[in-house]
Every structure is written in structure tokens, then in C-alpha cells.
Amino acid sequence: MRRLIYFVLFVSVSSWIYGQAITNVRLSPDKTYYDSGEKVTIYWNYSGIGKKEKVKITLWREGTNKNVCLIADDVYISRTHQDWIIPAGCINPRTGVKEELTTARVKIRVRWKKHPVWGESNWFRIKPKAIPDLIVDSITFDDTHSGTKPSETWIRVVIKNAGSAPSPVSLFSLELNRADGTQEQGDVVLDALSPGGIFVKEGRLRLADGNNRICVKADSRDQILESNERNNEKCVTHYFKRKVSVEITRPSRDGTILKQGEYYYITWLVEGLDVPTQNFRLEFFKGNTRVEGPITLRGVTHYNWKVDLVPGDYILKLSVAGTSYQDTVSIIVKEPEFDLKISSCREIGGRTVFSQGESVGFMIEAFNTGPDKVKRFKIKAWSVLGKPSKFNILGKSHVEASYAQTIEAGRSAKVAITVKVLDKASTSPYTMYFKLIPLEPSGKFEFNRKNNLCYVTYSVPLKIKIPITPRVINIKPDLTLEYAGYEKCSHFCDLQTGKFVVNIKVKNIGNKDVEPSKKLVVYFEMREPNTGKYIWSYSKQLFTGLQKGKEILMKFPVEYKDIYKRIKEGGRYLFIFKVDPWSSIKELNENNNELKKEITLPRCSE
């Protein structure tokens, strides 16, 4: 009774001090029982309040003087209502604990945010409806997934709504305790699920060697009211062992077959180790016997290896110093197979008669019919007297040339070799032989050596005739100029459009073309004939070059508006033309590049 008297006095005094009150708080529709999830509107009356005042709306439960949850905290008093969804439960802002509301009576309280004056609704109850229930259905792992690295596994989490009502969008957490003592935790968005629906999340997870414990908890922030709050979490232990991935980088068609004498890159990937300071060890075994290695490499993840092993089956073993990591790769070493032959040989100029001491070029075409490529080869050339069927391959006079030119399987290559004719004049023909010898891979692996020889028959005349032809010392262009008249424009007297055109022929009387890349420039200048006073100039550039013995007509337009104030109509003036004025083109005669011509200007009446 005393508390009631104090409360009435407090409200009366507060209303008197602040001159304001909130009354008649009610819900519409006005019912005693509401279903959870039902939409209602909260109404209230007020008096004596400014427009900028706000109210705070909270939900209270019977038997406690602490608000259960906050409905609205920033509603201006200019409004007299607030829409609201009836909840089955909500989080108490004081304790942070989710509380169920379907077992007790509750009411709405509307209060001035800045003043201790409030109004309350009548008591009402909330009926429970269908409620969701989120469970972690399964947690599975796949250490061999193609998207994982050696220190990762592929995890698949399945979460299910086992309840009777849809669940809204929420969060689920994944907590990882690795075998090395490190921890990791994070939240992931969980989609809304219908009753019986499932949510699947897949991804990579970095683990340590040993037993790793993974815990997944649905509704990690405890935001959803569920029929069973104790089945949201599931934990599993997964044993993991990292692997060293070894890969041999090679051009071979078969990933396990290597060719003897070839170079290959052996590459490997180790995740989670300090590669710059790590020692890696390579060994090659034939059965249980080590045949090559150990090769110790520090701080690298590749090795350029030449296959010096004899043909056979081998095991490549990679180990990491200071760790238990190791991996093996099965390889097969085979002999290279190729058939390199000369398909044609000929003298480059098509001749068959050579003079003694003359250097002669021959074109050799080599063809590879085998399955493997040849990287380097050599051509040996020598000459003997006699028929092609009776030759001595051990001839004393010979020349050899090596070529680092790859001939792929089924492809050919053309190479040129120059030999000097040492044979003396003879009435019998000579034969020049060319033999192709593979260098890399070694020629001992060639399975057909009968086609790598060709020959060319030639003769050395008894009497050598040397024709004498005049020797041209200077071969250069020579540019000259020739006046070709002028053309008068129909608007000559018009200051804006009037002009006349002077035509000049440029000739190349030299014995060499002017190349198109050269800048062929003609300079034109107009002066008074008596005083030499400068009037006007113009230059023009030709980019097409000029062949020897050819000429080209170049037009030089003289704009009347540019010279009108400096000349007299019908006057006589000196025109000077210069080709290649800056001597950028080397000519036979540099003194014939200028042309002077006195021209009488046309009159308007002409």
C-alpha cells in the first residue's frame, strides 16, 4: 500500500513538473491472446509535449520490474502509434539472455525518453506457434580434393532445420583448434531455411599435422527461438597429415616417360614450410638401389636435371630435411627415337661448274621422321673425284658446320653451308658429299642412318674465263629541277580564295633510286629580281621516293592573300626552287639542285 501511494505521488508530481503525460496505451486489435508472429499496432495518447520529444517502447513480463526487450527507442512523440510483430521470445538487454514469452503475461510500456513519465497497456498473453529447430547435421572432410593445397583439407558442413517453422537468416560459427595449438574462429551467414530444409557450406581449411578439433554451432548469436536450444553445436576430431607435392615439368607426351639425354625441370610445392631456409633432398632409385643422388638443394623448389640414367624404370624420391615429409614419383627413362635424314641438297645458285678456289654455298634440307625432336646437329662436307657410287667417305678435304636448330618430329629444317672448291681442273666430274650427324640427343640413338647422306656432282673447267665488265664506282641518285609553267585560279583577284599554281618537274638522273624512306623536300622562294628582297617562301615534302631515270611533277600553290600587299599586279619576280635543300640525300652531283626562274604575275583581266 505504501509503494502504491509513492507511485501515485511520483506520477502526479512528475506530471505537474513536466506538464506532460502518456495515457491509454493499447494494442490494435485489442485482444487478450496474440499469436507469435502476429502483426499489431501500439497506440497511445499524450499531452503537453514538444514536437522533438521521443518515446521508448519496451515489453515487460509479469513478475519482474525489468523490461524484457526493447521494441523502439527513437519514436518521435508527433507519432501516436508503432507497428510491431508479436515475438515468441526476445533477448533481455540487461542480461543478454534470450527469454521465452509464451509462459507468462506481458504488457507494453511507453515512456518519455527524457522524462520519468509513462503509460502501460493491459496484460495479455502470447500463444506459441510453430518454432524452428536448427541442428548441425554433418561435418565431413576430403584431404584429396583437387582444390586443396598440401596443408589444407576440404570441409563440408550441413545444417538442417528440424523444426516445424521456417528459420530466418542467421549466423553459424566454426571454431578450429589445430594440433599445433593455434586457434581460429569466425561466423558465417546461414540462409533462411524452411522446415526440413538444409544448408551446405564447403571450402578449404588449413590444418596442422595431427588431431584437429572442429566445432560448428548453428545460430551462434542465439538470435532464433527454437524448440530445442541444446542441439545447435557439433564437434568432430580430424586427423591430418600434410604431403609434399612433386611435379616434373617436361615437354614429354607421357607424364611418366623421360628421354635419355634430355633436360627436365623437377618442381615441387611444400605448403607451411619456410622454403628460403629449407633443405630439399632428391634421390633416384632403381628398385631398392639408389643410382643417383642425394642431391641437396636449399631454398628452392625446382631443379634442372639432365637424364643421364640408362633406360629403365626408376623412383624419384623427394624428402625435406628436419621433417617427416617425403613423396615419390615413378618415372620411365627411354632412349630418344628419331630418324634424321637429308631430303635434298643443291647449290644455291643452281650451277654445276665451279672454279678452283671459289667459295660455293649449298642449301641442305634435313627432315626428322622420328617421334622425338633433335636439338643440335652437324653437317660434314667433302669432295672426291669419280662417280657417286665409288666415293671415299674418308676424303682428306672436308668442312664441318654445327647448327643449334631444333627439328621437331615430323618437321624439316633448311640450313646453308659454304665450302671452298679445292679440286684442280679435270675432265672428270667431282662429287660433293654432305653427311648429317646428330649432336643432341646423341647420334647413337638414331635408329636409321642410311638416309642422312646426299651429294652434288660438279666439274672444274680446264680453262677459266673471267669476263671483264666495267666497274661502277659511284652509285647514287642525282636530283635536278625543271620549270613546267603555272596555272591561274579563276578567283585570282579575290583576297580570300585567289591563287596561282607553279609547276616544277623533279628528275632523278642518277644511277640509284631515292628510297621511299628518305625525306625528299623541294623548297620554293619568291624575291624581287633587282633588289633580291624576300617576299614569300614555301616547302613541300614527297614521301614516295623517286626511281632512277624517273620524274615527278610537283605543284606549288601561291596564295594571293599571302603576297597581295608585297607585289604589284602584272609585275615580274624571281622564283627560286631547291630540291633536297639540306643535303639529306647523298647525290652524284650536289651542284645541280637549284633552279631560278623569273615569272611575270598574271593580271586580273588576263
Please describe what this structure looks like.
The protein is mainly β. Helix content is 3%, strand content 50%. A hairpin with a 2-residue loop joins strand 22 and strand 23. The relative contact order is 0.06. The N terminus is likely disordered.
Task: Summarize this entry quickly.
This protein is mostly beta strands and 606 residues long. 3% of the residues lie in helices and 50% in strands.
Can you lay out the helices and strands and say which pair or pack?
Elements: H1 2-18, E1 21-28, E2 33-35, E3 39-47, E4 54-61, E5 67-76, E6 81-85, E7 89-91, E8 98-100, E9 106-112, E10 118-120, E11 125-127, E12 134-142, E13 152-161, E14 170-177, E15 183-190, E16 198-206, E17 210-218, E18 233-240, E19 245-249, E20 257-259, E21 263-269, E22 279-286, E23 289-298, E24 302-306, E25 312-320, E26 326-334, E27 340-347, E28 359-368, E29 376-385, E30 398-403, E31 412-420, E32 430-440, E33 453-458, E34 479-488, E35 499-508, E36 520-527, E37 534-542, E38 551-559, H2 560-563, E39 572-579, E40 594-600
Parallel strand pairs: 2-11, 20-26
Antiparallel strand pairs: 1-3, 3-6, 4-5, 4-9, 7-8, 9-10, 12-13, 13-16, 14-15, 14-17, 17-18, 19-21, 21-24, 22-23, 22-25, 25-26, 27-28, 28-31, 29-30, 29-32, 32-33, 34-35, 35-38, 36-37, 36-39, 39-40
Structure characteristics:
five-stranded mixed β-sheet; 2 helices; mainly beta; single chain; 606 residues
Distance between the termini: 132 Å
How many strands appear in the DSSP assignment? Answer: 40
Task: Give unreliable regions as ranges.
Answer: 1-18, 390-395
SS summary, helix count:
2
Strand order of the largest sheet: 20-26-25-22-23
For the sheet with most strands, the description reads: 5 strands, mixed
Question: What is the alpha-carbon Rg in Å?
Answer: 51 Å
Determine the mean pLDDT. 80
Name the helicity range. Answer: under 10%
